[in-house]
Design brief:
The complex is a heterodimer of chains A (296) and B (290). Chain A is of the alpha/beta class and 296 residues long. Chain A has eleven helices and eleven strands. Chain A folds into two domains: 2-121 and 257-289, Periplasmic binding protein-like II (D-Maltodextrin-Binding Protein, domain 2), CATH 3.40.190.10; 124-250, Periplasmic binding protein-like II (D-Maltodextrin-Binding Protein, domain 2), CATH 3.40.190.10. Chain B has a two-stranded antiparallel ribbon. In chain B, helix 2 runs antiparallel to helix 7 (186-215). Chain B starts with a helix and ends with a helix. The chains are: A alpha/beta (296), B mainly alpha (290).
Chain lengths: 296, 290
């Protein structure tokens, strides 16, 4: 009797192991590579974390108007998005920076020709603590602060205290853009504190009297009562400009950048409707609503 | 005949299940080596041993991992120094002095502390601890190695408490009885007999706690300021290896020097945790043999 039971259990056990293995292995084997890019009515967008909010707002409205097409949006960073575009695992890549030469070469090697479309622009606001007496700076002064040439606030007429430089992580598109535009391609000071997110910069600037950092315009305006936004002067002679939707659009505010969508030019047909929607009046209204600056 | 065949089959299956973890570890090493190894050939090992980490630059990209290594070491050492007194006294209290009801209350709370996600701890650190450190030490900013170390200690303490508590409990009762019979007080017995007898276990517990600390990412990334400076001061910003990988992997161009440098950082990190774990296991083994 006892041996029968144990035999039964043994069989059950083997059966269990075999089924588990089958369950684990079979889906792994049978699944074809990646569906993205093959189905007609399924569009994937991957890329910049800065743009996720914007692109998913577009996707939501787009799907409301055209329920037959499904748009799926994921972040991961501009680099990840461009890599995915090259590997054909996404239809559209959202990027807060231009494609790099290396990446373009890699794409051409694989016979893929990314097409670049500017869909919105984004101002970068410089923020300090509300108690900081300084309210305007020139691009040159900003450059000297972030490269570490200026280390004390007194060098710009503030109090004789050390400057605490806050920056985004080097992986951020904003980091490279600010480096190119404001630091004139020089390196950031190694003393700069690299914070992982925009919210961390806002949080630190609001609690730290000596801090200075940069964030996307939308975030800065949303946190207006926690941090002070600096007016920026192009040089000593010009008048200072506060960043806003208007001044970014008109080009008066100097620190602004375009936001891109990249697509595979061979498969343009499939995603055309979505791109057209992004560039339409409605799409551009969403740009403004989500805190970015419309291009039209 | 049939039975032995079946038994062999089952045995084989069990063996393969058990050895999966070995395969995975080897696989990870091979993968990391494959992705990062070529860095040693092309830009060269010298580049990697530099003291400047500036991976995104229009001038010259530098991939010196020295500041990252010292950053990780500084935070880990500080966290361990904070963990040791706290972890040992708590485990002594719970295993030797606490009444059963106290233990019933204390243990679940320690387990809950172990289960708090590190992002949550990091967030609390950023909001509460960082301003406190800034005010307390009159610094220009609270985003320092010390802030990271305190949070990491918070995460390592539960591990250290539960493992060293185990070690203290497994000290034979006869040791304590002998000590008490010789006229030693309860406190004397605890500190002069029980704890020394359990020491190898306690050391292993601390090592395992260190393993957790060095691999922790999110909380450190949020509060240490992440400036890649070569420093030994707890009041400076540091950039740890884990934070570097986490922060930079997302946007790096695949196959670039930067990408491969990050894999090299991963290899160093893996070797460090590997080493710590091996030492901890050795110490634990010694303890068991006795």
């Amino acid at each position: 009797m006892k041996s029968k039971i144990s035999k039964y259990f043994k069989r059950l056990f083997i059966f269990g192991i075999v089924t588990t293995m089958a369950l684990v292995l079979v889906p792994g084997c049978s699944r074809p590579d990646d569906h993205a890019g093959t189905e007609e009515n399924y569009i994937t967008v991957k890329g910049s974390d800065t743009m996720v909010h914007l692109v998913s707002s577009w996707a939501e409205d787009f799907m409301k108007r055209d329920p037959n097409i499904e748009v799926s949006v994921t972040g991961g960073g501009s680099g990840t998005g461009i890599a995915a575009l090259i590997n054909l695992t996404t239809d559209i890549c959202a990027a807060s920076r231009k494609i790099k030469n290396d990446e373009e070469m890699l794409a051409v090697q694989k016979d893929i020709h990314p097409k670049e479309i500017i869909v919105a622009s984004d101002g970068i606001a410089v923020v300090v603590n509300p108690e900081n007496p300084i309210s305007e700076l020139t691009i040159e002064q900003l450059g000297k602060i972030f490269t570490g040439e200026y280390t004390r606030w007194s060098e710009m007429g503030g109090s004789d205290k050390q400057i605490v430089v806050l920056s985004r992580e080097s992986s951020s598109g904003t980091y490279s853009f600010f480096q190119e535009m404001v630091l004139k391609k020089q390196d950031y000071t190694t003393k700069a504190k690299l914070l992982p997110a925009t919210s961390a910069i806002i949080q630190s600037a609001s609690s730290d009297k000596l801090a200075i950092g940069y964030v996307g315009l939308g975030y800065a305006l949303a946190a207006k009562d926690k941090v002070k936004i600096i007016s920026v002067k192009i040089d000593d002679k010009s008048s200072s400009v506060m960043p806003s939707g208007q001044t970014v659009k008109s080009g008066q505010y100097p620190i602004s950048r375009p936001l891109y969508l990249y697509l595979n030019s061979e498969k343009e047909e499939k995603v055309k409707k979505f791109i057209d929607f992004c560039l339409s009046d409605e799409g551009q209204l969403i740009v403004t609503e989500t805190g970015y600056v419309a291009i039209k | 005949m049939k039975n032995t065949w079946k038994e062999k089959a089952v045995k084989l299956m069990l063996l393969s299940a058990a050895s999966t973890s070995i395969l995975i570890v080897i696989g990870i090493f091979v993968f990391l080596g494959k992705e990062g190894g070529t860095f040693v050939i092309k830009p060269g090992l010298k580049e990697l041993l530099g003291s400047r980490w500036m991976p995104v630059s229009f001038q010259k990209e530098s991939f010196g991992i020295l500041p990252l290594v010292t950053g990780s070491v500084l935070v880990t050492v500080l966290a361990t120094l904070l963990t040791i007194p706290f972890g040992i006294s708590a485990s002594v209290y719970i295993s030797e002095l606490a009444r059963p009801t106290e233990r019933e209350i204390l243990k679940p709370f320690i387990e809950i502390l172990a289960g708090i996600p590190s992002v949550v701890i990091g967030f609390l650190g950023l909001i509460l601890l960082v301003p406190l450190i800034k005010a307390g030490f009159r610094l220009s900013t609270g985003l320092t190695a010390l802030a990271g170390a305190i949070l990491l200690a918070l995460m390592a303490i539960p591990t250290v408490i539960s493992i060293s508590e185990d070690a203290i409990r497994s000290v034979p009762v006869s040791y304590k009885q002998a000590s008490l019979a010789l006229g030693a007080s309860k406190m004397q017995t605890v500190w002069k007999v029980t704890v020394p007898a359990a020491l190898p276990g306690i050391i292993a517990a601390i090592m395992l706690g260190m393993g957790r600390v060095i691999g922790e990412t999110m909380a450190v990334m949020m509060v240490t300021g992440n400036a890649a400076i070569l420093t030994a001061s707890p009041f400076e910003s540091v950039r740890t290896m884990t934070a570097t990988i986490a922060a930079e992997m997302g946007e790096v161009a695949f196959g670039s020097n930067h990408y491969r440098a990050l894999f090299c950082v991963g290899i160093v990190l893996l070797l460090a945790t590997f080493g710590i774990n091996i030492v901890a296991q050795k110490v634990l083994q010694k303890h068991r043999v006795r």
